[in-house]
Amino acid sequence: MNRLRAKLQRLFHRHSYKVEVDGRACVLVPQGSTILRALIKAGVKYPHSCCMGDCGSCKSVLLTGMVQTSGYLESALSEAEAESGIFLPCSSKPLSDCKIAFGRKLNEALQGIQQCHADRPGLSKPDGE
Ligand code: FES
């Protein structure tokens, strides 16, 4: 019983989550930190510019895990993108261990959204076309 209690306490009082970037890098993100801030602090080269959810440069795909995203502009991340698992690491804090990616996997996810809108003419394209 004490072992179970100790395990539950460890789970609920975690102070950091492991974030793996496309199998290339793995960082511990301290509680309260954004994923991008922890990546930069760890020296991981990651696309970014504004660091505050305004530009979309850090747009990424969440492959596994959960994040809490807030405080970004819809011009940086559309609703369709957010619903497809795309997120902004500069405006997101992990809620669990995560695997994320940018580059090829992000492009595949973005193409999937465009294809979905092309297949359903009643929907407007995410870029407003
Ligand atoms: S760095 Fe600009 S939106 Fe993330």
The biggest beta sheet reads: 5 strands, mixed
Radius of gyration: 17 Å
Per DSSP, the total helix count is 4
Helical amount: 25-40%
Strand percentage, roughly?
15-25%
**How do the strands line up in the largest sheet?**
2-1-7-3-5
CATH class: Alpha Beta
* Shape assignment: globular
**Class from secondary-structure proportions:** alpha+beta
CATH superfamily: Beta-grasp domain
What pattern of helices and strands is seen along the backbone?
A: HEEHEEHEEEH
How many separate domains make up the residues? 1
Task: Find the count of extended strands (DSSP E, 2+ residues).
Answer: 7
pLDDT under 50 segments (min length 5)?
A: none
Do you know the CATH topology?
Answer: Ubiquitin-like (UB roll)
Bound molecules: FE2/S2 (inorganic) cluster
Characteristic key phrases:
alpha+beta; Ubiquitin-like (UB roll); five-stranded mixed sheet; binds FE2/S2 (inorganic) cluster; 129 residues; two-stranded antiparallel sheet; 30% helix
Provide a descriptive summary of the structure in words.
The protein is of the alpha+beta class and 129 residues long. The chain has a single domain, classed as Beta-grasp domain (Ubiquitin-like (UB roll), Roll). 30% of the residues lie in helices and 22% in strands. The protein has a five-stranded mixed β-sheet, sandwiched between helices. Strand 1 and strand 2 (25-30) form a beta hairpin. The longest helix has 16 residues, at 104-119. It is globular. The model has no long low-confidence stretch (mean pLDDT 87). The structure holds FE2/S2 (inorganic) cluster. FE2/S2 (inorganic) cluster (FES) is lined by residues 48-51, 53-58, 76, 88, 90.
